[in-house]
Amino acid sequence: MVHTMTLQDPSAHHECEPAWLTALQPALSAIDPLRAAVLRRRLRTHGARLHARLQGLYGQQAGFHDFTVSLLTAALKHAAQREEALWQLDLAREARPEWLHAGLTGYCAYVDKFAGNLQGVAAQVPYLQELGIGYLHLLPFLKAGQGANDGGFAVASFADVEPSLGTMADLQVLCADLRQAGISLCSDLVLNHVSHDHAWARAAREGDAAFLAYFHWRPSAEAVAAEERHLKQVFPATAPGNFTFIEERQAWVWTTFYPYQWDLNWAHAPVFRDMAEAMLNLANHGVEAFRLDSTGYLWKREGTDCQNQPEAHAILQALRALCDIVAPACLLKAEAIMPTQALPPYFGLGELQGPQCHTAYHSSLMAASWVALAEGREDIVREVLRHTPDLPKGCAWLTYVRCHDDIGWNVLRPELTAMGRDAQASLLAAVQHYAGRDGQGARGASFQASDDHAVHGTNGMTLALTGLPPGAPAGDATERALARMGLLQSLSFFVGGLPLVYMGDELGQDNVSEAELTVRAGPDGRELHRPVFDEVAARQRHDPSTLPGRCFQQLASLARWRRRHLAEDRPVSLRVFQTAEPGVLVLGRGQALGLFNFTGQPVQVDLRPLAQPWPLWQVADTCRPLDSELVALPAFGQCWLTSSTDLYADSGA
Ligand code: GLC
Predict the structure, then answer these.
(1) For ligand 1, atom 4, which residue shows the shortest CA distance?
(2) pLDDT at 240
(3) Which of 231, 326, 407, 464 could form a disulfide with 79 if both were Cys (CB 3.0 to 4.6 A apart)?
(4) For this structure, is 293 an active site residue?
(5) Quick check: CB of 263 below 6 Å from ligand 1?
(6) Residue having the nearest C-alpha atom to atom 7 of ligand 1
(7) CB half-sphere exposure, 536, CA atoms < 13 A
(8) Are strands 584-589 and 592-597 parallel, antiparallel or unpaired?
(9) Ligand 1 atom closest to Cα of residue 153
């Protein structure tokens, strides 16, 4: 066991020790010897990588050695203060990096909408357990800027909980309760920007040189225009442009998202130090996973679109190395809503080799599944999966059907182009379909599109998008919408290393009502799919004759099947089969086969060409043997089959 390893004599390795490690001896000597021994080992394993990444980023800056030593000294203090339960979790996960492949299911919710406040979330633990949740992402709960704050993504203090949601003490209690229940808490760590209300931004606005350096400034409209020529826009309709004029400074500050979200200057070493401190402080309160928000934008390079720059990956690798030293139980999740081709580096598979994030949103798969559903054909999903690389051990794709953001369509352009299709026309058709403009019954809304022919994003809750008629009257249209939702969820659960359920979908909640949207009065169309948890629907979750009951039971079953059939000790290796039936996707994974019918017609899938010799298949939901080689799938139907032979595991890393 790692924690019983022999203590090392601190002087034993001095000769080959780098200067930064030698400089840490006083800090290590102040720590309990058992812990110090573990930390010394981790420093030897991960410290050089951390040092190399920091050197690449800040090595040219004066005082780099002292910066590194003081960063690591502070980090060691966090390690020494880590409470025993977390320290033990660190040791356990460090010894078994494949813990992430145990068939986890995630859940994502706003604290206030789900349960009022952090204490309310603790009271929802039994509900989450019933659904089979092992990972809970609570959308930003740290102190946010006054007024509009992008759903909490404009953070005013990383060291305080938003007062209306609770306190840091509540957070600590909640994390412990969740851990006890086998649920890891994930917090956003908004790396790219802070609120203009944050103390750093306030000081910068007042002209404090130490804090002016925390942000990116441009002195003139011409300088801004020169940058804008290369940049894209995240919110072209509600927050056009990437810079905001600051009266007090008579200069423009870089604001990729809303004008009140000031991009941090990660080229300035103290930004790294302060954000690392924020992360480790939260980890010591019991946070077990960080959703690294907007990771693609962290580094600015003149003349580029400032996305996915190599230095952004160096920053993430350095943060990961810090976690590996101080809090290895923590999982890092990249929120990089980028085309599939840009994602491998987030797993350390790019030029800059080395551990980086454990998981990342597979937004292309998500968007592709919606396009496939609109088109009634599966080929775009097949193409995306073809471009999806196998991941290193201890890494997993985060899959999802919906989340708090819009469905961003443009990530799919590379795949559509590779298929020889007109990307603009295909995506526009999806936009029109989900805005209900083709008469098929979807009730979503376009997001940030300047006109009816622009392609950007789509908002709406899952069932509204799959065509649930208002009020969900019994009948074909409701059945069709439910089947379509089941198809997308089943695909996400089958492919994902970590599938995420978005709060409300498990109860089949509808879009936020017009009346409620008027009360919320904000320019942000994403409010359409940010409902308050429906207590009445939740009470119906055990009644299979109700819509909430059907949705809840379906997702709970998928979570159960995952644990039973897709728990593996390595990353997912998927096989995508070519089938004779148009519109049907057949995937193999370990001992399971997933069949997904994207057409509005019943189909029969002939399994014979897929596996030789013919295994004994069981249907996952009934555990009954499959009695025919022809599997009947209803319109938009799906099913999982399992066998006792591992037919499809091949190239798992
Ligand atoms: C991420 C969040 C999104 C937010 C943006 C800016 O993309 O998911 O909700 O608006 O970052 O912080």
Answers:
(1) 153
(2) 94
(3) 326
(4) yes
(5) no
(6) 294
(7) 3
(8) antiparallel
(9) 12
Cα 381–chain centre separation: 19
Cis peptide before 355 (omega within 30 of 0): no
253 DSSP β-pair partners: 217, 244
Distance 381 CA to ligand 1 centre (A): 25
Residue nearest to ligand 1 atom 10, measured at CA: 150
- The per-residue pLDDT for range 492-540, each reduced to its tens digit, is 999 999 999 999 999 999 999 999 999 997 779 999 999 999 999 999 9
Check pocket membership of 293 for ligand 1, CB cut-off 6 A: yes
Question: Which of ligand 1's atoms lies nearest the C-alpha of 403?
Answer: 8
Q: What is the mean pLDDT of residues 344-359?
A: 94
3-state secondary structure of 500: strand
The answer to whether the CB of 257 is under 6 A from ligand 1 is: yes
The catalytically annotated residue of 90, 335, 505, 527 is 335
Q: Crossing angle of helices 64-81/33-42, nearest 10°? A: 130
For residue 192, give the ligand 1 atom closest to its CA. Answer: 12
Residue 65 scores a pLDDT above 90: yes
Query: What's this model's pTM, rounded to 2 decimal places?
Result: 0.95
599's tokens: 């057409």
Distance of CA 192 from the midpoint of ligand 1 (Å): 10
Say how many residues make up the chain. Answer: 653
Ligand 1 near 294 CB (within 6 A): yes
Structure-token pair, residue 85: 């339960």
Cβ 339 vs Cβ 301: under 8 Å: no
| Residue 621 bears catalytic tag | no
pLDDT digits (tens, 9 = 90+) for 150-182: 999 999 999 999 999 999 999 999 999 999 999
CA distances (Å), origin 553, targets 168, 538, 545: 34, 12, 11
Beta strands in 315-464 (DSSP E): 331-334, 359-361, 396-400, 407-408, 445-447, 457-459
**CA pair distance 111, 140, nearest whole angstrom:** 8
